[in-house]
Amino acid sequence: MAPIKWIFSLASLILFTAPALAGFSSSSSTNVAIYWGQNSLGQGTGPNAQQRLSYYCANTEFNIVPIAFLTTISNPTLNFANAGNNCTAITGSSLFYCPQIEQDIQTCQQTYGKSILLSVGGSTYTEGGFSSSALATAAANNIWTIFGPQTSNTSIPRPFGSAVIDGFDFDFESTVSNMIPFGQTLRSLMNTAQSSTGGKPYFLTAAPQCPYPDAADGPMLAGAVYFDAIWIQFYNNYCGLQSYTPSTGTTQNNFNFATWDNWAKTVSLNPNVKVFLGVPGSSTAAGSGYESGSTLGQIIAYSKSFSSFGGVMIWDASQVFANAGFLDSAVGYLGQAPQTTFSTSTVSSTSSAAASTTVTGSGTGTPTTSSAAASSTGPGLVNQWNQCAGQGWTGGTVCKPPYTCVYLSVWYSQCE
Ligand SMILES: *[C@@H]1O[C@H](CO)[C@@H](O)[C@H](O)[C@H]1NC(C)=O
Ligand SMILES: *[C@@H]1O[C@H](CO)[C@@H](O)[C@H](O)[C@H]1NC(C)=O
């Protein structure tokens, strides 16, 4: 009896101390957004290859998933790296239909309380926006029929079928024109849908680079478009996490969260907009800006001191779930109890079941869209310092040039 009682009370303890994560909250400073879709770690097979969306949603340490990316808008196309291999072409359209993602969006929303956004753009986006405001408005209406609430028109190509996303994320990284009417039209379509369905909220977010004002999203952010949240890319830039100096305390030189907090309060159309600290999920996720351990803890503590702070954004799922302990510690620093029932290390160790499935290359049903990640990392190649061989190893075995796989022990070889 005693042990059963003990287990029972332990279970209820876990149950009652679990943070109530239910999608994006504009009143919370402990939101966690993790991008999914680009398999940016670049593993084609093995436990660290990008898994299907619902696999990650079972983790309770984050509540928002921007799915990356809708890579073109005017003639819409998607790229989900290896997850695209599980989709089938839609006749008469450049889009593909993804039954797993359709099912997983619904599971993520209904079972795991996640907010699912479709991220538009990415670093490979080259359309440059729209040549006129009328084309921008038409594109917003078109995108909404494709990803917003389903209508009776069965000719509309719907990559996610009956699933309805919770909004859009803008990740523009090059010069774009006429984005204000695009953003404003999407926002107004979302507001109309929200009031007609009795309140299901839709969200609009953006991922500017840290230099202020953002070169691409700047005009929209300059009080023109109503955003619920922005997650700043504090990486690959001089103002990234690496520029945070603990010794100067509240006076930071290059690390500019303060500038963005001031934007939120004095420039943003939504004065209650949330500003997230965007971080790389591992040392290979970005060229610069990766911080972990107590340094990350200090940066989160500093950023939390601003009232606009909304939480942390991480690029991306494939990187952070291969970086054991990082998500736990980030969530710990945020002040949200890490879940003992389902940690990042559990995710990695249980994923071997999917390891035998080959997810790169041209399997049957491969859509017309390239299966390669839109990010610069080559699929299947192992990054420097990562494991490439060893007893029981099922991950990638070919190193990214110019590195070679160096034997260290029967258990472990790494690319160097
Ligand atoms: C693709 O489908 C297979 C088979 O259902 C599944 O195991 C795998 O996780 C899927 N991959 C992605 C990246 O969605
Ligand atoms: C249905 O959708 C198709 C494709 O977007 C469009 O061409 C057509 O005009 C729509 N039909 C109606 C009745 O709205």
From TrEMBL:
EC assignment: 3.2.1.14
GO molecular function: cellulose binding; chitin binding; endochitinase activity
Signal sequence coordinates: 1-22
UniProt keyword terms in alphabetical order: Carbohydrate metabolism, Chitin degradation, Chitin-binding, Glycosidase, Hydrolase, Polysaccharide degradation, Signal
Keyword Metal-binding: no
Catalytic activity: Random endo-hydrolysis of N-acetyl-beta-D-glucosaminide (1->4)-beta-linkages in chitin and chitodextrins
Annotated InterPro entries: CBD, CBD_sf, Cts1-like, GH, Glyco_hydro18_cat, Glyco_hydro_18_chit_AS, Glycosyl_Hydrlase18_Chitinase
Recorded GO CC terms: extracellular region
CDD domains: GH18_hevamine_XipI_class_III
Chain ranges of the CBM1 domain: 380-416
PROSITE patterns, per the entry: CBM1_2, GH18_1, GH18_2
Region (Disordered): 356-377
Pfam families in UniProt: CBM_1 (PF00734), Glyco_hydro_18 (PF00704)
Any Gene Ontology biological process: chitin catabolic process
SMART domains: fCBD (SM00236)
Domain GH18 span(s) in chain numbering: 30-337
Family membership: Belongs to the glycosyl hydrolase 18 family. Chitinase class III subfamily.
This protein's name: chitinase
Protein's organism: Cudoniella acicularis
